[in-house]
């Protein structure tokens, strides 16, 4: 089960170079239900996500490089590339996604939780912007099929 909240970020008040950074590339084979492929640095995954915004089922299966690139040729819509910074915040890790073209300058932060109650009671840091957890247009699946 994935339970997360998502926030837009207008400006980052610190230097990101101090944090671990992953380069992500992902595409969607299907958006309802969500079937995604992802390259995370040198690791590859096939992911299934059920419907839902605050919480939903998520299953990640490992892929090899050859399988990833075979399926990459079959994605619908836009391939999404972004840098993901992992920022400690108390007992949480903020996943700060900085999107590359054609979605730049979009930046948002995701925080994952153990329970829905914990997610709902979470107080974000001051530098977080608008909470877009319940806005479907900010899902990566929706972005991948967006008209540019």
The number of distinct helices, counting runs of at least 4 residues, comes to 3
CA-atom Rg in angstroms? 15 Å
Please mark out the parts with pLDDT under 50 across 5 or more consecutive residues, or reply none: none
Mean of the pLDDT scores? 95
Biggest sheet, in brief?
9 strands, antiparallel
Beta-strand content estimate:
over 45%
Number of strands: 9
> What spatial form do the alpha-carbon principal axes imply?
globular
Give helix % range: 10-25%
Distance between the termini: 32 Å
Notes on the protein architecture:
The protein is mainly β. Helices cover 13% and strands 47% of the residues. It contains 3 helices and 9 strands; from the N terminus they run ββββββαβββαα. It has helices at 65-72, 116-121, 140-144, and strands spanning 2-8, 20-31, 34-40, 43-49, 55-56, 58-63, 76-89, 92-99, 107-112. The mean pLDDT is 95.
Question: What does this entry show, briefly?
Answer:
By secondary structure, the protein is mainly β. 13% of the residues lie in helices and 47% in strands.
Salient structural properties:
single chain; 148 residues; 3 helices; globular
Structural topology:
Layout: E1 2-8, E2 20-31, E3 34-40, E4 43-49, E5 55-56, E6 58-63, H1 65-72, E7 76-89, E8 92-99, E9 107-112, H2 116-121, H3 140-144
């Amino acid at each position: 089960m994935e339970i997360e909240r998502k926030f837009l970020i207008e400006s980052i008040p610190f230097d990101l170079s101090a944090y671990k950074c992953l380069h992500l590339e992902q595409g969607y084979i299907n958006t309802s239900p969500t079937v995604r492929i992802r390259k995370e640095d040198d690791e590859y995954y096939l992911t299934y996500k059920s419907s839902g915004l605050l919480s939903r089922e998520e299953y990640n299966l490992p892929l090899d490089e050859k399988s990833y690139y075979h399926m990459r040729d079959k994605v619908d819509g836009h391939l999404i590339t972004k840098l993901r910074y992992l920022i400690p915040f108390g007992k949480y890790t903020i996943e700060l996604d900085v999107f590359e073209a054609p979605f730049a300058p979009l930046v948002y932060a995701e925080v994952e939780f153990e329970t829905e109650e914990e997610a709902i009671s979470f107080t974000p840091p001051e530098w977080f912007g608008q909470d877009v957890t319940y806005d479907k247009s900010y899902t990566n699946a929706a972005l991948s099929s967006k008209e540019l």
